[in-house]
Design a protein that fits this description.
Elements lengths: L2 H22 L2 E2 L5 E3 L2 E16 L2 E5 L4 E6 L6 E2 L4 E5 L2 H34 L7 H33 L2 E3 L4 E6 L6 E2 L4 E6 L3 E8 L4 H6 L3 E4 L5 E4 L2 E7 L6 E8 L11 E17 L4 E3 L2 E8 L2 E6 L1 E6 L4 E6 L6 E3 L2 H14 L1
Antiparallel strand pairs: 1-20, 2-23, 3-12, 3-17, 4-11, 5-7, 5-10, 6-9, 7-8, 9-11, 12-16, 13-14, 13-17, 15-16, 17-22, 18-19, 19-20, 21-22
Length: about 350
Amino acid sequence: MSRLSNNLFFGTILATTVLATIVSYTAQASDVATLKLVYSEQYQPRIYDAKIEAIKAATISAQTSGRIINIHFDVNDLVPQGAALLEITNKEQGAGYAGAEADLAKAEALNSEAQAQYLRYKTLFPKGAISKGAMDEATAKAKSSKQAVSAAQAQLIKAKESLNYTVVSAPFSGRMTQRFIEQGETISYGQALFSGYDTQHLRAVFQIPQQDVDQVQKQEQVSVQLFNGDEIISNEINVYQFADPLTHQHQVRVNIDASNIEDVIVGQWIKVIVNFPSRTSLMIPLSAIHQVSDLTSVYRQMADKIVLNQVRIGRVDHQNNTAEVLSGLMEGDEIVIDAGRYLIQSSAAKGQE
């Protein structure tokens, strides 16, 4: 017989001996706190596997051309809103801005002259000192010069924006996921630079079968259980009104606010718990469950004795510290509330005998 077979053989004997010892030992139940089981209405939760996605994600592109001189953030960095991501050369844009300023100053000077001449002609024309043709020319020149100032102001705004585009800023706070450029490269208008997502506004995305659509649509809120055990309650539930043509399932989006939760990462798998209509169940305290290897049991009172009773456990409600009994117990049975304490007390009493 191999060493592995020997270990399995003696392990089986040991487990059987321990179980026989526990089952064969009974104690008086007069001083033990017990609970009489009754059926209660319990919600039947349906658990779905969901994936975390970002609600707000963007790819930033270049709005002007130039050579990259500085890159301030890299992939996986947390970036605050408005922070400068990179800088490019701005000599051409700066020259364009200076030229636009000069054009505006020239247009304003010509407009001042044209408006002054128009006012003079307007005063002299009723007296007959100015011909109608000269008056019409002054009027047209005043209007065109005023429009020229507006055009020069627009060009100055455009040149200023082009100069501002040489510093690329983050549109919102979030985490950078991709960088498409390197320092020293020459970029052109419309070229992709960075990608990222907002870390505060996320959603859980999962699919449900057709028979669950009505119940999920009726839910006012659902529970999102993160990988670390934290739960987020959300009332923003969006069930698609069309099914996937391949899987014939409906996609559901549940928005979650992760501003107060750390380590929520896009792409992680989590659980979404939806409460379906209630059902009658036997619920027992978690403290009443005695677990030995693969044996799950409780201590049940029979007359004036307490015996070990094997049970099969279903859903566990961590919020209320209770578990659902699928088989092994019936309504009216009495069980020991604290199995650990009872085991210690009974072991001590047995040692004194």
